[in-house]
Design brief:
By secondary structure, the protein is mainly beta. The protein is built from 4 helices and 24 strands. It has a 7-stranded antiparallel β-sheet with strand order 2-3-6-13-8-11-15, with no helix packed on it. Strands 1-22-19-24-17-16 form a 6-stranded antiparallel β-sheet, with no helix packed on it. Helix 3 runs antiparallel to helix 4.
Length: 283
Amino acid sequence: MYKFLPIRKILVWGTEDWVLSGVPGSESVVAEGPDAGKTLSEVYGGEFPLLVKFIDARRDLSIQVHPGDELALKRHGCRGKSEMWYIIGAAEGAHLYSGLAKPMTPEEYERRVEDGSITEVLGDFEVAPGDVFFIPSGRIHSICGGCYLAEIQETSDITYRIYDYKRPGLDGKPRQLHTELAKDAIDYSVYEDYRTHYERVENAPVELLDCEHFTTVLFELTAPLECPTPGGGRWCTVVCAGGAGTVNGAALREGEALLFTPDETELSLVPTAQDFKILASYR
């Protein structure tokens, strides 16, 4: 079991804390124990497939999209980016954009980016703690101000910024847009529902998402629980998305993460504060 030093990124809209990252140039380092100072790739033995962040959006993020694996490999020589969001906190009226609410052609996309009306065709959702959204590659999206969430994604930092409200970056200059690159990456389909629905059950594992890139299981704990580690002998990220407690004896609080090795097949969760929530993800 490993704990890593968080990497904080200050952005024009708020902050990201990367608590588990194998992204080159932003790689997590073991915080303590005999392997302290080693990188995630050194203890894993290669590029770890998942990236875990905590995102605190004080202002709206840009309208953006991520390419899929095939397109990202062709253009950038890396993985694409599918991700999921678990809402931890939401200010009154907080919302986010996910997917298209009405049909849009590539030609209309270009026009709406130019005239600033792109948000008019996006799915707009008010959010509350516990809400879950899956954002597969190709889906236009944006986290808006007032949202605090955990993000679990493929190990990739490829983002196509479509529209950024004509605001300057931290350096005072307009941030780069990737309007043309995004055009071929967008999924122009309209889907019936963009929320991920699940039954909330206390003190038991609840599967939130199972896709080709990763599986995520939620534990909402009011009492101690012992169970098999999700993933059955695979590397597993264990992320605290609320409250505090111990995980196999290690203290863990909101905003922190652990990485379990394949030989750690049993999970012991003990809440020490109210609303102890754990997200366990594996590939």
